[in-house]
Design a protein that fits this description.
This protein has helices at 2-13, 45-61, 77-87, 98-106, 112-122, 129-133, 159-165, 173-183, 202-213, 231-244, 257-261, 275-279, 281-284, 305-308, 337-350, 353-360, 372-375, 378-381, 388-391, 393-401, 418-425, 428-437, 443-458, and strands spanning 34-40, 65-71, 93-97, 146-158, 267-271, 309-312, 314-316, 320-331, 368-369, 411-412, 415-416. It is α+β, with helices and mostly antiparallel strands. It has 2 domains: 2-151 and 324-405, D-Maltodextrin-Binding Protein, domain 2; 152-322 and 418-458, D-Maltodextrin-Binding Protein, domain 2, CATH 3.40.190. β10 (411-412) and β11 (415-416) form a beta hairpin. α4 crosses α21.
Length: 459
C-alpha cells in the first residue's frame, strides 16, 4: 500500500501531464495487456532507480503494461544483442549510443518504421538537427532510432595554469601538444593530458575522432570507399600516439580524470558529464581518493576548480572539428506487434515534458535534451543538484546548441556511412590505439591490420 501511494504521488507531483509530448500534442495511449523488456546502458544504481520510478509510475497509470528494466554495460551491449538476436529473444526497446543503434539498423534488427512514426509525431523540426542526422537512414526516409540525450566533448583544461605559463588554450594540434609537453612532470606526479589508450574502450575513439577530423582524415570518402589508411589518418594516429606519451602511466580510460580532480593533470578529454564533478564535492568524492590509482594519495575537494577550468570544444589543424554523441531510444523488431505498440507508447511517454526532464536530471550537464524547447525550460535549468547555477544558463545554452553541429566519421558530405557505425561498435580503432601506445606496434602495421578488419566489415 505504501509503495502504491508513493508511486501515485510521483505521478501527480513529478510526471503529469502524461497526455502531451514535450514537443507536440499527440497522446500517449494505453497499449493493452502486454509485457516487454527495456535494455538500458545507464547501469549506475541511482540512474536505474530513477528509470524504475518512471516505469512504475507509467505502469501504475497503465496497469495492463509490464516493463522489465535490464541494465547492460555499454561495452557488452553489442555482444549481448547479437546473442539475444540469435536466440530470438531481443527486447522490444533499448537505449544506446547512436552509432550502436545505427549498427543494429544495418544488421536489420531495428524497427525503423516504428521509430520514424514517433519522430514525425513529435515533429522533426523540434529536434536538434545534428542529433537527428546521426540517426537518419542512408535513404534519408526514416530513422533507426530516436535521439534522446547527448553530450558535447572537448578538452577541459586548467586555465589558471595556462595563463601563468603564457600558453594558448588547447584549441589546435600545435598548442595542445606544446602544453602537454610543458606540463608533463612525472617526477612530480603531474601529467600533461589524458587521452584514451585502453583496448576495447570507446573512450579512445571519442578522444581520437576530433583529432583525426581536424586533420581532414576520414574512414570513408563521399562515395563510400574505405580511405582509412591515408596520409591524413596516419598523421592523426602518430599525433595521438605522441600525445599519449604525456598521459598518466599505463593503459588509460576516462577514470584517469582523477588526476585532474586531484590537481595532477593539465588537460583531459571529457564530455559535459564532468560538470557536476567539477562543481560538487559529493559528486567528486569518488575521484578524490587513492582507491583507483596507487600514485594518487587523495585530496580534498577544491571548490575553486570549476572556476579555474575552461572547455575547448573545437580542435583545429588543417580544419576545425567538434565532437559529441547522441544516446538514442530504439525499438527492436518484434514478432508480437503488441510489444512494438507498447514500446512505442512508452517511448512517447518518456518524451512528455516532466518525464523527459526527470530523466535528464539524472546527469545534469551530461544528459542534454534533444528537443530544443526543453533546453530553455525553467524546470530543466533548475536541476536538483544545482549544477547549472555554477555555469549559468547562457553558457549551458551555448553548449547544448552544439548538438546542431555534431560531426562523426559516419557522415561524409551529408551521406550516411553505415559501415562506420559498425566499425565503432567493433572497437577497431581503440584496439589499434592500444597496440601502438601500449604494445609498441609500428603505426603502419597497426593501421594496415585495422584497415583489414574494416574491409571485412564493409564487405
Amino acid at each position: 500500500m505504501k509503495k502504491a501511494i508513493l508511486i501515485i504521488m510521483a505521478a501527480l507531483l513529478i510526471l503529469l501531464p502524461l497526455s502531451v509530448f514535450a514537443g507536440g500534442e499527440e497522446e500517449v495511449q494505453e497499449a493493452g495487456p502486454v509485457s516487454f523488456d527495456f535494455w538500458t546502458t545507464e547501469t549506475q544504481s541511482d540512474r536505474m532507480a530513477t528509470i524504475q520510478v518512471l516505469i512504475d509510475t507509467y505502469t501504475t497509470l497503465y496497469p495492463d503494461v509490464s516493463i522489465n528494466l535490464v541494465a547492460v554495460d555499454e561495452n557488452d551491449l553489442v555482444t549481448q544483442v547479437q546473442t539475444s538476436s540469435a536466440a530470438g529473444t531481443l527486447p522490444a526497446m533499448f537505449e544506446a549510443p547512436a552509432e550502436t543503434a545505427v549498427a543494429f539498423g544495418v544488421e536489420g534488427i531495428v524497427d525503423i518504421t516504428a521509430a520514424t512514426e514517433i519522430v514525425k509525431g513529435i515533429g522533426k523540426e523540434k529536434f536538434y538537427q545534428g542529433a537527428l542526422n546521426v540517426l537518419e537512414t542512408s535513404a534519408k526516409d526514416g530513422y533507426y532510432a530516436l535521439p534522446y540525450h547527448g553530450w558535447i566533448q572537448g578538452i577541459w583544461y586548467r586555465a589558471d595554469w595556462f595563463e601563468e605559463a603564457g600558453l594558448k588554450p588547447p584549441t589546435t594540434w600545435e598548442d595542445t601538444l606544446k602544453a602537454a609537453k610543458y606540463f608533463y612532470q612525472p617526477d612530480k606526479n603531474q601529467y600533461g593530458i589524458l587521452v584514451g589508450t585502453m583496448d576495447g574502450e570507446g573512450y579512445d575513439e571519442q578522444c581520437f575522432t576530433p583529432i583525426a577530423m581536424a586533420n581532414n582524415a576520414a574512414l570513408f570518402d563521399k562515395d563510400g570507399k574505405l580511405v582509412f589508411n591515408s596520409p591524413e589518418m596516419k598523421e592523426a594516429v602518430e599525433y595521438y600516439a605522441e600525445l599519449a606519451k604525456y598521459t598518466p602511466p599505463g593503459p588509460q580510460t576516462w577514470r584517469a580524470r582523477d588526476y585532474y580532480l586531484q590537481g595532477k593533470l593539465a588537460m583531459f578529454y571529457y564530455s559535459t558529464y564532468i560538470m557536476d564533478d567539477l562543481a560538487l564535492a559529493e559528486v567528486a568524492a569518488g575521484s578524490l581518493t587513492s582507491d583507483n590509482f596507487e600514485s594518487l594519495k587523495g585530496t580534498g575537494f577544491d571548490p575553486e576548480l570549476v572556476d579555474k577550468t575552461r572547455l575547448a570544444p573545437i580542435m583545429t589543424n588543417k580544419s576545425s572539428a567538434g565532437y559529441g554523441t547522441v544516446v538514442a531510444l530504439g525499438l527492436f523488431t518484434q514478432d508480437d506487434s503488441a510489444k512494438t505498440a507498447a514500446a512505442q507508447n512508452f517511448v512517447k511517454y518518456l518524451y512528455t515534458q516532466n518525464a523527459y526532464i526527470t530523466f535528464l536530471h539524472m546527469a545534469p550537464g551530461g544528459m542534454n535534451p534533444m528537443l530544443k524547447e526543453i533546453s530553455t525550460n525553467p524546470r530543466f535549468q533548475n536541476d536538483p543538484k544545482g549544477i547549472f547555477k555554477h555555469y549559468g544558463a547562457e553558457k549551458m545554452g551555448e553548449i547544448i546548441q552544439g548538438l546542431d553541429s555534431i560531426e562523426t566519421f559516419s557522415i561524409v558530405d551529408g551521406n550516411r556511412m553505415e559501415a562506420a557505425s559498425q566499425i565503432t561498435a567493433q572497437k577497431i580503432i581503440p584496439e589499434m590505439i592500444y597496440k601502438i601506445t601500449q604494445e609498441g606496434m609500428d603505426v603502419d602495421k597497426a593501421m594496415a591490420e585495422a584497415e583489414s578488419k574494416m574491409e571485412k566489415l564493409v564487405k
